Structures are given as structure tokens and as C-alpha cells.
Amino acid sequence: MAQNAESSPMSRCQRCGFRAESGGPEWDSVESPPMGTLTRCPECGSTDVATGLSIHR
Q1: Contact indicator for 49, 9 with CB cutoff of 8 Å
Q2: Residue 2 has what pLDDT?
Q3: 28-32/49-56 β-pairing
Q4: Cβ–Cβ under 8 Å, residues 27 and 42
Q5: Of 4, 19, 20, 45, which is most buried with the most CB atoms under 10 A?
Q6: Are residues 12 and 41 in contact, defined by beta-carbon separation less than 8 angstroms?
Q7: Residue 12: closest CA among 37, 57, 36, 48
Q8: What pLDDT score was predicted for residue 30?
Q9: Are 48 and 36 contacting, i.e. CB atoms less than 8 angstroms apart?
Q10: In this predicted model, what pLDDT tens digit does every residue of 23-46 receive, in sequence order?
Q11: Is the pLDDT of residue 11 over 60?
Q12: Which residues are CB-contacts of 8 (< 8 A; sequence separation ≥ 6)?
């Protein structure tokens, strides 16, 4: 039986590998005046986060 593949945009921390839905409540954020609001990893605090990754469920 075939299953429907749903994809949700996901974000992944480049430092520790934490993954969660892009823009989800799991992510922290920090204000950086020259750059605006940055997504911050709740596990390690890094702002090196890749967003918009398509992950099939």
C-alpha cells in the first residue's frame, strides 16, 4: 500500500544537528541589530541554522 509523502519545511542546527519544524516553537531566537532576528538552537545556542529543508515523513 502506498503512503502519501508529506513534507514540512524543517530547520537543522549545523553545530549539533538538532532538527525541528521551521518556525516551530522549539526554536529560540535572538535579536541582532545589523541582521534582525536570528533563529537560535535551543540545545547548543548556535545561530548557524539551515532553514527550509524538505523532510519527507
Answers
A1: no
A2: 43
A3: unpaired
A4: yes
A5: 20
A6: no
A7: 48
A8: 95
A9: no
A10: 999 999 999 999 999 999 999 999
A11: yes
A12: 21, 22, 54, 55, 57
Maximum C-alpha span of the chain: 52
Look up residue 3 and give its three cell numbers: 503512503
> Which set of grid coordinates corresponds to residue 12?
537543522
Cα 32 from Cα 52, distance rounded (Å): 21
Enclosing H/E stretch for 48: none
Three-state secondary-structure class, residue 12 = strand
Beta bridge pairs of residue 9: 54
Q: Are 5 and 15 in contact (CB under 8 A)?
A: no
Residue 19, number of CB atoms within 10 A of its CB: 14
* d(C-alpha 5, C-alpha 55), whole Å: 10
Summary count for the chain: helices (H), strands (E): 0, 5
Cell numbers linked to 4: 502519501
